[in-house]
Design brief:
alpha+beta; 6-stranded mixed beta sheet; single chain
């Protein structure tokens, strides 16, 4: 994983001495920030004393929240902090940035994600929405063209390589996760319907608020990545990536598991006691590049689906038009 510390700030503060009202407002903000910073220092001292004396968990939690809130208040009105948060130059180990980015995620981005998961029937086709709840972490998928909006239609060729995984999570300690990618619309000829097909599973991927880019190469690959290959003649396929926290608050490893490409996500998460913390998906339909995946990766002929063409009733086996008295 890569630490969530972003680039150093390039914020340029507006010049003082130009607008008297701005200068006075700046003085008020600085005085308030200094007061809250002092209160936060006292709260941190109180927290340390409670920890040293072996205070109970509820007391420690309340004191930590008090310190956290005061740290946020001491910097929340700082123009540079707000600029950094908007421009991706933040460190989630700083309470003010954690507060700002968590509120940002729980606003419009989460609303859009949940709307598309439900409107496009990712939920409940893959998992019961009551089981999933509200994803607590922001998952961004990076394909060839960059970060993909949930539900976007992409060219299958852009996902020929493993997607990049950005996971913004808000817990202090590193936790292990399993990342799984599944196609919800693989055709099943035997049952004349569609089924799930797993494309990739990698476990033991660590994440915390100090890290935001998943190093899937450092995890345990349980199922090798196979690129999306929506067959010719099938409807649009939904490719879902789920980040699943492993048991014991992400502290238990998952080094081996019985997996197959034809299992279901419901069975997989139930069998291994996994918890959904992040979701995203994209859609794709057949293009000529898909045939290359069948040939080069799957080592099989590319299938062709579609309606069966029935010969006209007035045409005979030899292809010649039947006479009226024969057309019965």
């Amino acid at each position: 994983m890569v630490r969530a510390m972003r680039h150093q700030s390039t914020y340029k503060q507006p010049a003082t001495g130009v607008n008297q009202a701005y200068d006075e407002a700046l003085q008020v903000i600085r005085a308030y920030s200094e007061q809250k910073a002092h209160e936060a220092t006292l709260a941190h001292t109180e927290l340390q004393k409670a920890q040293d004396s072996g205070a109970d968990a509820s007391t420690l939690s309340a004191l930590k929240k008090k310190w956290f809130d005061l740290r946020v208040e001491s910097r929340i009105n700082d123009g540079e902090v707000l600029w950094n948060a908007r421009n991706g130059r933040f460190d989630l180990t700083e309470p003010v940035y954690e507060h700002l980015k968590q509120n940002e995620w729980q606003g419009r981005p989460l609303e859009i994600l949940m709307q598309r998961l439900l409107q496009m029937f990712v939920l409940p086709d893959m998992l019961d929405p009551r089981f999933v709840g509200t994803p607590e972490s922001q998952l961004n998928l990076k394909l060839e063209q960059g970060v993909v909006e949930p539900g976007s239609v992409v060219d299958p060729a852009s996902a020929r390589e493993r997607p990049g995984i950005e996971l913004m999570t808000f817990h202090d300690e590193p936790r292990m996760h399993t990342i799984a990618m599944v196609d919800l619309d693989e055709p099943c000829e035997a049952e004349q319907t569609f089924r799930e097909q797993f494309h990739w599973i990698v476990s033991n991927v660590r994440a915390s608020k100090m890290q935001n880019t998943a190093d899937t190469g450092a995890g345990t690959e349980l199922l090798e990545y196979v690129p999306p290959h929506p067959a010719h003649g099938t409807p649009m396929h939904r490719y879902v990536v789920a980040v699943l926290e492993q048991p014991n608050n992400g502290q238990r490893r998952l080094d081996s598991a019985r997996v197959s490409r034809d299992m279901t996500m419901r069975d997989f998460v139930t069998e291994h006691s996994l918890r959904v913390v992040g979701l995203s998906f994209f859609r794709a339909a057949w293009t000529e590049s898909v045939d290359d995946v069948y040939r080069d990766v799957l080592k099989q002929a590319a299938p062709r689906y579609g309606p069966i063409t029935m010969p006209p009733k007035n045409v005979g086996p030899d292809g010649r038009m039947k006479y009226a008295y024969e057309n019965r």
